[in-house]
Amino acid sequence: MRAPIALSCGEPSGIGPEIAVKARLALGPEVPLFWIGDPRHLPAGSLWQEISAPFEALAVPATHLPVLRHDFPALAVAGKPDPANAAGVIDVISRAVALVQAGAASAVCTCPINKQALHDGAGFGFPGHTEYLAALAGVPHVVMMLACPQLRVVPVTIHIAIDQVPEALTADLLEQTIRITHAGLIRDFGIAKPRIAVAGLNPHAGEGGAMGSQEATLIAPVLGWLAGEGMQITGPWPADTLFHAAARARYDVAVCMYHDQALIPIKTLDFAGGVNVTLGLPFIRTSPDHGTAFDIAGRGVADAASLVAALRMARDMAASRGL
Predict the structure, then answer these.
(1) H and E: helices and strands count for the chain
(2) Which domain holds residue 263?
């Protein structure tokens, strides 16, 4: 990897600054990175070194966090986001994207944000990181994948109420999601012929229409024409039999119809080590699979395992792209 990973600060009143320091100490020279943020927001006593350009991070001692300074208007109070800092959080994300697009960084890894705090303080109009990154990249459709060593999952519909899922689930959305997932596994994970398993929407995958018709009328036809193109794809499978160990051995990713269908199994298998990956962007983006954790911010007890895994995955994805 020729360029370091850009690590955005996220919400400074959450656990982002703490886990950034912990991740750097845990990884040392294994994953070259630099943190974009206000060093005043780092935990007291943190070892850090200011850099003026990303490449300088490669020469910073492994005991210190390389910091590309981005000053914020206000200090950070643990657990209490300040509206004055909201625009700074957004600006750091766009700065990280600009650096990776310019080739100064190999990937973007984002610490957690609080969407309500950004909306209240800066009128942030996106549902989350994923949609904002897609807008910055000018990409109409991206895919959220959650990954850990035992499982990769992709939800087709994401942050919507469960009663909205049947209407939101369309053949076009399902096809786009599967195509982006397939391409991402090849480009970013080095899987030459991805095996994709697709869950049904209804209990027992509809049980022949007795418990719902979407499997027969919507999902199966999409899988049929994708399989006809040569894609290794199977389903729709009952979700309750898709995630045990023997089933997981038969696929590289499980495409699920809604948020909890995908996230419950992966968080059960590896709650601390799951990684959020955005597929379909022209650059690499990973993130820890948790939020700002305001309730424990500033106490020094936050677990950096998911951020460590996200940084390692970003490094490995960059290697798959030859970066």
Answers:
(1) 11, 12
(2) 150-269
CATH of the domain at 234: 3.40.718.10
pLDDT tens for 43-78 read 999 999 999 999 999 999 999 999 999 999 999 999
What is the phi/psi pair of residue 278, to 5°? -100, 115
Instruction: Name the domain count of the chain.
Output: 2
- Per-residue pLDDT for 37 more than 60? yes
Mean pLDDT of the chain: 95
Confidence of residue 156 (pLDDT cuts 50, 70, 90): very high
Nearest partner of 171 among 209, 237, 221, 239, judged by Cα: 221
Q: Are residues 203 and 239 in the same domain?
A: yes
pLDDT at residue number 186: 97
- Residue 203 main-chain phi, psi, to 5 deg: -55, 140
Confidence (pLDDT) at 207? 82
Max CA pair span of the chain: 63
Residues 71 and 122 in one domain: yes
Residue 1's pLDDT is what? 54
User: Residues comprising the binding site for a divalent metal cation?
Assistant: 159, 204, 259
Asked whether residue 145 is domain-assigned, the answer is no
Statement: residue 206 has pLDDT above 80 = no
Looking at the fold, whether 49 and 96 belong to one and the same domain comes out as yes
In a domain, 264, yes or no: yes
User: Which residue blocks in 28-149 are alpha helix, DSSP H?
Assistant: 86-101, 115-122, 129-137
Q: What is the mean pLDDT of residues 220-236?
A: 97
Known binding residues are 129-130, 159, 204, 259, 267, 276, 285
Asked if residue 211 belongs to a domain, the reply is yes
Tokens read off for 212 = 């719902």
For residue 7, which of 99, 144, 124, 134 has the smallest C-alpha distance?
99
pTM for this prediction: 0.93
Sheet strand arrangement including 48-51: 48-51, 65-69, 33-37, 5-8, 107-110, 285-288, 275-279, 143-148, 151-155, 253-256, 195-199, 232-237
Binding site as annotated, residues for substrate: 129-130, 267, 276, 285
Domain for residue 290, yes or no? yes
